[in-house]
Amino acid sequence: MEPLMDARVVSDICGTLLFSVVACAAAESSVGTYSTLAYNEESGDLNGLEITIIPVDGGLVASVQIAEDGINELHLAKVKESAGVLLFSPRLNDGSTINFSMKCSPKSCLGEYVWGQANVKFVLPKSNGYWNKRSLNNSPAVGENSAMAIEMRIDASDIR
Predict the structure, then answer these.
(1) 10-65: per-residue pLDDT in tens?
(2) Could you tell me which residues are beta bridge partners of residue 152?
C-alpha cells in the first residue's frame, strides 16, 4: 500500500472507532433510573412513569413501568442509540407497542412516547426509583394494605 493510502485507511479506522466510542459513551452515560412514579394515598393508585436503562452484553435494555389510566405493567425492550437519542419500543400485553425516544443528561431525561394516537412528552428526573425509595418513605409495598400489583412481561424478542 502507498503511504497516502495507508494514512487514509488509518484515518477511516480511527474515525470509525472514535465515533463508536463517543456513541457508546453517550449511551452509557444514560445508564440509571429516571422516574416520576408516586403513590397516591387518596386513590391508592400508583401513578407516573419509570424507566431504568440497564447495561447488558451487547448494549442497553430499558425497563419501563407505566402506571397511568389503570395500567401498571413492567416491560423490557432493547435500546438503540442514534445521535445521542435513546430509542426503544416495548410491547404491551395487549400487543400494542409504545415507541419511546429520549435524550438523557446526568440529571434527567427529556423525551416522548407514541402510543396509538397519543404523543406524550415527558421529563423524568434521575432518581433511585420508586421501588428503591419505597422503604425509605414508608409507601406501601405490593401486598401490604394495597391493591397495587405489577404485571411483568418479558418478551425475548424485545431484548435479544
Answers:
(1) 334 334 333 333 344 445 678 999 999 988 888 888 899 999 999 999 899 999 99
(2) 74
Q: Which residues of 79-94 are buried (b: 16+ CB within 10 A; e: fewer)?
A: bebeeebbbbbbbbee
Query: In this predicted model, what pLDDT tens digit does every residue of 89-104 receive, in sequence order?
Result: 999 888 889 999 999 9
Report phi then psi at 82, rounded to 5. Answer: -140, 115
Specify whether the CB–CB gap between 115 and 96 falls below 8 A.
yes
| Nearest of 69, 58, 64, 142 to residue 101 by alpha carbon | 64
Give the number of other CB atoms < 10 A from CB of residue 111: 21
Query: For residues 39-57, b (16+ Cβ closer than 10 Å) or e, as one string?
Result: beeeeebbebbbbbbeeee
CA distances from 106 to 3, 9, 27, 81, 90 (A): 44, 36, 12, 17, 24
10-22: buried (b, 16+ CB within 10 Å) or exposed (e) per residue?
A: eeeeeeeeeeeee
In the block, cell 463517543 appears at 22
pTM score of the predicted model? 0.68
